[in-house]
Amino acid sequence: MEQATPPQPTRSKQGGFPRPHWRKMTWVLIVWAILILVWAIAGGAGNDCASETTRLNEEACEAGTGIGVALILLIGFFGFAFFSLIWIMTRPRGRTCPVCGETVKKGKTRCPECGHDFAAANPRGPQAEEGTA
Q1: Measured between alpha carbons, how far is 38 from 43 in angstroms, rounded to an integer?
Q2: Are 73 and 36 in contact (CB under 8 A)?
Q3: If 0-12 CB within 10 Å is exposed, 13-18 middle and 19+ buried, where does residue 24 land?
Q4: Is pTM, for the whole model, over 0.85?
Q5: Are 83 and 29 in contact (CB under 8 A)?
Q6: Any idea what DSSP says for residue 103?
Q7: Which of 23, 86, 88, 113 has its CA 20 to 30 A from that of 131?
Q8: Which residues have C-beta within 8 Å of that of residue 49, sequence separation ≥ 6?
Q9: For residues 23 and 38, what is the distance between their CA atoms, to the nearest angstrom?
Q10: What residue segments make up the domains of the chain, in order of their start?
Q11: CA diameter of the chain
Q12: Could you read off the pLDDT of 50-84 as tens digits, one per residue?
């Protein structure tokens, strides 16, 4: 009698750690947020205000740095809002049938093409709850 092997997590094509299966726009949002944070931190840390000759020049340099970082964060906020709207508008309208690959609208329990029953395939569905009660 053979022992069943437990399912292995999906690995990336290079054989490294498993990668989450997120939509492309999710990755765009993550990369955008990281880019803005790195840009703001580099902008704030990259000033050389200590080398200014007078106190007034040093304070003006620090104020300019603060304004620059604020503008970077403002650009980041508007970009994040823009990409978030795209993320919301491009969400899937249904689910893919595992048998025939057709897109089935949300709320439907049977595939209109092949007749696959999603409720029977889902052990956490209403039928499974009735059987345990």
Answers
A1: 8
A2: yes
A3: exposed
A4: no
A5: yes
A6: E
A7: 113
A8: 58, 61, 62, 65
A9: 23
A10: 22-91, 94-133
A11: 85
A12: 898 899 999 999 999 999 999 999 999 999 999 99
